[in-house]
Automatic annotation (TrEMBL):
Xref: SUPFAM superfamilies: Undecaprenyl diphosphate synthase
Entry-linked InterPro entries: UPP_synth-like, UPP_synth-like_CS, UPP_synth-like_sf
Record lineage: Eukaryota, Viridiplantae, Streptophyta, Embryophyta, Tracheophyta
NCBIfam families tied to this protein: uppS
Pfam families reported for this sequence: Prenyltransf (PF01255)
Organism annotation: Capsicum annuum
UniProt protein name: Alkyl transferase
Protein EC: 2.5.1.-
UniProt similarity note: Belongs to the UPP synthase family.
Record keywords: Transferase
GO MF annotation terms: magnesium ion binding; prenyltransferase activity
Amino acid sequence: MSEEETGGNCPRPTPLSFLKNIAATGSLFCDYESKVDLAAWSSISSRVDMEGVNGKRVGHLFENISSFVRQCIFSILNVGPVPSHIAFIMDGNRRYSKKQNLLDGDGHRDGFSALINMLKYCYELGVKYITVYAFSIDNFKRRPEEVASLMTLMQEKIDELTKEESIINRLGIRIYFQGNLKLLSDRVKSAAEKAMVKTSGNSRAVLSICVAYTSTDEIAHAVQESCEEMWDDIRKQEANNAEGNFIGLEENGKDENEHRIGVTDVDRHMYMSVCPDPDIIIRTSGATRLSNFLLWQSAHCLLYSPTALWPEIGLRHLIWVILDFQRNYSYLKEKKKQS
């Protein structure tokens, strides 16, 4: 076979090397003169003049090509184990805004577009649960005008997510807002509650949005709820006691441990009890800390910290972490069994 037929110096790709090349470079080809940047594909169609018929056709063409390529890639990835739950710490929106010399808030708007793309990729791959860390309780310590701006943007995007033609409804994704929602402004809290009601009939995938959230607050809330539940049970027992005193546990046929709060009790009252523990946590911007996110649930999950800022995250980052997950799957599975 001639050099032209084999692509010059480019070796014949195997499915695994093909995926690794995409994950490492964002390129479909090893010939650098003809490579296609997958990260740019998602934005090409939006830059085309959509007012003209030709512009629409080109936009649809790129969209169809992108969809076909993803289907091919995901069909290869699905040969191996696929995570059921991926969580994202969406870090770097403000730094991205400064880096691109954007106006305040524009970095978060681009971050929302990145979230929509990642939702689509995860759904197409077959990931059932997606969780995002959108707003920490600690973020309330920022400048009041910045917090107010973020609350307004959050309300706008929540309303956008629940529109009839939105990707959430097209893909059948149910939304949960997790956290101490009492800390949110009335308008944002109301929008969040409406979104949960509107999407309650969707069942193909679950998106958990953590707002006014920290893991320590979640754990404290779960312990408090567990204690209150236990006290309610004890009071009911005492009310049924003719003498009004607590009869010995053994006389009631109760084991002493039945009145102790265990891990399963706390776990049941967690905000995130609607989802299994995450298989992967991805934090953008290169930081390797969890920042008080899913501390209770992340004991046996894979952590991935790409240097890309959140609005820069793309398909290649997802491919890379899935390959890493598949490589470590047996080890992670064994660790879960031992716990």
